[in-house]
Structure formats: C-alpha cells, structure tokens
Specification:
The chain is α/β, with parallel strands linked by helices. It contains nine helices and nine strands.
Length: 268
C-alpha cells in the first residue's frame, strides 16, 4: 500500500511539472508603465572630429571611440547615426560637469566633421563651420532635446567637460546661434556692459574667478593660484561666450560675463 501511495504522488508531481511552462520573454507584461521615469540622456555633447569625413567615419566605427551621430560636411550634409541612443557611445572620456562625472553613460554625443585647427607661426588657426552644417546640427539638436528633455545648461562642448584635454568644438563654433534657436541660454548684453564698467574699476581676485567657473559647472581648481589648469578652464568658457579673445586671462570682460551668467541676468 505504501509503495502504491509513493507511486501515486510521484505521478502527480510529474504531471504538475509537465503542465508548468517556464517564463519566456513573449510573456512579458508591458500593459502598465510607471509615471516616475526619465530619459537616461541628461547631457548633449558637441565635438569636432579634427578629421575629414572618410577618416571620421572610419575612426568612429572601427576604433575605440564612437559617437551617436556624425554630421558630415558634404553637400547636402549627411547625418549618420552610428550608435543607437539607447546605448552608450564612447565620446566624452574622462569628463565632468557640476556633480556629474564620466559623462559617456548619461550623454548623447554629436561629432561634426571639421578639421579643427592647424598650428601656424602666429598661433592656432581654426576651421570655420559652414552655415548649412550648423543649420543641420541645430535641427538634430532640437530633435534630440525634444525627445529626451535635455536642459539648456546641459548642452555642452567637449572642451567644457574636459577642459584639460580637449578644445572642441573650438572658438568658431557659433554658440550664439544655438541661443537664438532657443536651445541654450545667453547672457544679456546690457547686463554684461553694466558689469564691465564695475569690473574695469576693480578686478576680482583669483578665488572669485575659480568659484564662478565652478558654479557654472566647470571642473575648476580652487587653489587661489592662477595655474595652467585654471587658465584652461577659462579658455573653455571664453570659447563659448567670448570668442574674439580666448587667452585664459581673467580680465574685466570675462568677469562681467561670469557675473551675469551666474546671477541669471539673462535675456527674458
């Protein structure tokens, strides 16, 4: 009798096992979506390639660096999507902005075909961006920002998030056009002029400059010494907001721009 009972129980267990299906991905229930969520892309980083289009494509697809998009300089401009936005591209490297570091994981990268600069006896000569290419870049940025909700203050150049290593997209990239397109904020010219008169009378000390740059988001030394690292950070700032002179010298005009930007005295 006991053996019959054991056999019965065994058959019952086998029967139960045979009717239970293991979970498969086609059983995934996607009918409910959480309200508390946001895009993983918090930053948009702009670069120039420093290479021609063919070499840019080769490097960004076959080597250890990549980018989500490449904007060509052909006519009309070809825009390549090289990495899906859901995946991480290797474009930012060692980088930081405010409290965020290693921005590859939280950013979308746009590479722009542009040769960058050449060294000459009178200094670096940067290559201008054709207007059609900038128009293409602005259209692409608008699309990305609309889909991911990237804030204006998080649309940045590679040189801003890595000022000790990188200069791109350089002093000829027309940031003001991005401001005119409503993509980034821009300091009020009248407010800057008013602050310039003040700082021409008395220039702030080094700590003030370092503190203001860090307040914006730049990784800035706070040593009280105007060393090469501090100079590089100010150059990155000047390449965006004061492109006629980007020498890293903490002068009255740079101070006026910093004061207006950090005090939010911008255009309505």
């Amino acid at each position: 009798m006991k053996s019959l009972l054991v056999l019965f129980l065994s058959l019952g267990l086998l029967s139960a096992c045979s009717t239970t299906r293991p979970f498969t991905m086609d059983q995934l229930n996607t009918s409910i979506t959480a309200k508390s969520q946001a895009s993983r892309a918090r930053f948009l980083i702009l670069h120039y390639t420093a290479l021609d289009q063919a070499l840019s494509l080769h490097v960004l697809t076959e080597q250890a660096v990549s980018s989500h998009y490449l904007v060509g300089n052909d006519q009309p401009n070809t825009v390549y999507r090289l990495v899906d936005e859901s995946r991480m591209a290797i474009h930012a490297g060692v980088s930081s902005w405010k409290t965020h570091a290693q921005l590859n994981a939280s950013s979308i990268g746009i590479e722009i075909v542009n040769l960058g600069y050449v060294e000459t006896p009178t200094g670096r000569q940067y290559q201008a961006f054709p207007q059609q290419q900038i128009d293409t870049v602005i259209t692409l940025i608008k699309d990305i920002v609309a889909r991911h909700g990237i804030k204006p203050e998080n649309i940045l150049g590679h040189g801003e998030i890595a000022p000790q290593r990188k200069p791109d997209p350089g002093p000829l990239f027309p940031w003001k056009q991005l401001a005119d397109a409503g993509l980034i904020e821009w300091p009020n010219a009248d407010a800057v002029a008013a602050q310039l008169l003040i700082f021409q009378q008395a220039l702030p000390d080094v700590v003030w400059f370092q503190t203001k740059l860090a307040e914006i988001g730049y990784a800035t030394p706070k040593t009280g010494i105007w060393d090469q690292e501090s100079k590089n950070v100010l150059i990155a700032f000047q390449c965006r907001y004061r492109q006629h002179t980007f020498d890293g010298i903490p002068d009255a005009e740079s101070a006026a721009l910093l004061e207006v930007i950090t005090s939010k005295k911008k255009l309505p």
